[in-house]
Amino acid sequence: MARMTHAMLKGSNVPLDVSAVRAVLRWTPGPGVPDVDASALLLGHDGRVRSDEDFVFYNQPRHPSGVVRRLPKKQRSDGWTDAVEADLAALDPSVDQVVLAASSDGEPFGHVGDLRILLYDTADPEGDPVALFDVHPETGEETAIICGELYRRGDGWKFRAVGQGYPTGLVGLATAFGISVDETDTGGAVDEDATHAAAARPAGADLGGSGASGDGSPAGPASPFAPPAPAYGYPHAAPPVPAGDPAYGYPQPASPPPYGYGYPQPAAAAAPAPDPAFRLPPMGPQFLRDA
């Protein structure tokens, strides 16, 4: 019996009735189209990795538990594929989510016109997919995208289509979820071509090397920039808590203006000092008392 494929929209979710899945990224190569690599992050109940071993990518293609692994890249008649498998039934109870991501090599995802993630039952990898999601970058400048996530719900698992991008590549994706990154400040300019293939070296997981080969070749120059936060979306840094609103009444105590989105606002100019020579105008006759 043919399986019904769920065509997902961004933000939608579907329950999974399979015990293990294969998440396949598919795209069409061409002039100016970057190579794409699949990766996965195993997250605990706090939404962060438990250790650097929870990052499965081209230079660390297998989780120590063996239940999440990256498969070799393949060329098919309809394009290239890169895939990650996850045995959901065997995952440790401390793992609450598996983030399924893509990163691009050299150029942003604005140059990849038809990126798609397909979710298969590993018991029938050549059958119809359980779900598919066409991944469209928000700005076109993203160099890493969370395509979807597997997450626990009750005693089972669900898949959510995410489509959340990061302009900071694999480094930004990894550090956003708690991967440790060793930095060396060289004082030079950032090499944009190296941010995907050789941007930084997390403890226990080498981010250098070629995504296409996955052979663990030596890393390139270390990143001279600090671990960035995602530009928008998920996961978020905790926003600053604004001061409480003043109580009802008049006059109100002076308070600093709130921050705008993304950037601190300039400090308000100080109120001018009162003019000591100022006098109220004479009152009209209607306010004068009778003699």
Descriptors for this entry?
single chain, 291 residues, mainly beta, 29% strand
Structure description:
It contains two helices and 15 strands. The chain is mostly beta strands. Strands 1, 3, 6, 7, 8, 10 and 11 form a seven-stranded mixed β-sheet that branches. A six-stranded antiparallel β-sheet has the order 2-13-12-9-4-5. The radius of gyration is 27 Å and the shape is elongated. The N and C termini lie far apart (106 Å). The model is unreliable at 184-204, 209-233, 236-241 and 255-269 (pLDDT under 50).
Evaluate the radius of gyration. Answer: 27 Å
**Share of helix among residues?**
under 10%
Count, helices: 2
* Quaternary assembly: single chain
Shape: elongated
Strand content: 25-35%
Mean pLDDT: 76
Low-confidence spans: 184-204, 209-233, 236-241, 255-269
State the end-to-end distance. 106 Å
Structural class: mainly beta
- Main sheet characteristics: 7 strands, mixed
Question: Could you give the topology of this structure?
Answer:
Blueprint: E1 6-7, E2 13-16, E3 20-27, E4 35-43, E5 55-56, E6 68-70, E7 74-76, E8 79-87, E9 97-105, E10 116-121, E11 131-134, E12 144-153, E13 156-166, H1 169-176, E14 181-182, H2 194-197, E15 201-202
Parallel strand pairs: 1-11
Antiparallel strand pairs: 2-13, 3-8, 3-10, 4-5, 4-9, 6-8, 7-8, 9-12, 10-11, 12-13, 14-15
Give a brief description.
The chain is built from two helices and 15 strands.
